[in-house]
Amino acid sequence: MDYRQLIYFMEAARLESITRAAEHLYVTQPTISKMLRQLEEEWSVTLFDRSRKKLTLTDAGAVMLEQAKKIRHAYHGLEHELDALRGLKRGQLRIGLPPILSSSFFTRVIAPFHEKYPEITLHLEENGSKKIEEALLHGDLDVGAVVLPTEESFFHIHPFIDEPLQVVLPSRHALAVQSSVGLAELNRERFLLFNQDFSLRQQIIAACRDIGFMPNILSESSQWDFIEKMVASGLGITLLPESICRELGGQVIIRPLSGETLRWRLGLIWHREHYLSFIAKEWLDFSIPVLSQMGQEH
């Protein structure tokens, strides 16, 4: 069995299309079709139901996919071991980062790490905490930064930010004259929140429910700067971490939450059971002290 066969098979299964898999892998469609046919002949099984508009895994295909992922993890483990033997001179690290985090924050870690290890490629994937956790569980990322809490039975966790959420209001909002705003005072407001991939969204909704109201969510986005512009336009209000509020322009009014315990806690996480490469270990050893210091500054 050729390792490439498994890669082509997994991509076809993920995209549910041989054509799209070929485009993504920069190979021809006949090449992938041939590899899949050889794989099916070698194991005397049918991996896909091709009678539908999109590829659908058969029972045998589902079993093959599960085992192929394990083989891919083992293959990556071999790559990482060899990278370690080369003294961390080459290799790659896959890091998940939340878009809500200021770009300048992690740059202060990434830049000196790259200077120390210039041949190590950092693949940065911006996504919400839920998607980052899923990617770590599936072995698609090495390390991630997520909003806490998360599932401690699955992940090692190192917190590095703990700060309050603040209310972001349109400049002419009635509550803007107050020095602080209580969460209960927002029960009639239109909320502009992050989408469902973001743990912060669920945290805000849960806090509102706890004091007796369900927030009226007007719009959702994955970008805090777009949410800021919608608030500035008078479409609604939002709650953002203190450090993000410092990045906002002068078109909105920022007020602290009074008497509330809503806080934004961020931490580095990595899977407890998955192989952790020497590069990933070096990244953690390098970044944790820096991030902890930056968290104290915030």
UniProtKB/TrEMBL annotation:
InterPro entries the UniProt entry points to: HTH-type_LysR_regulators, LysR_HTH_N, LysR_subst-bd, WH-like_DNA-bd_sf, WH_DNA-bd_sf
HTH lysR-type domain location: 1-58
Organism domain of life: Bacteria
Keyword field contains DNA-binding: yes
CDD domains (alphabetical): PBP2_CidR
Extent of the signal sequence: none
Recorded GO MF terms: DNA binding; DNA-binding transcription factor activity
Any one GO cellular component localisation term in the record: cytosol
Keywords of the record: DNA-binding, Transcription, Transcription regulation
Family per record: Belongs to the LysR transcriptional regulatory family.
The protein's name: Putative HTH-type transcriptional regulator YwbI
Species for this entry: Marinococcus halophilus
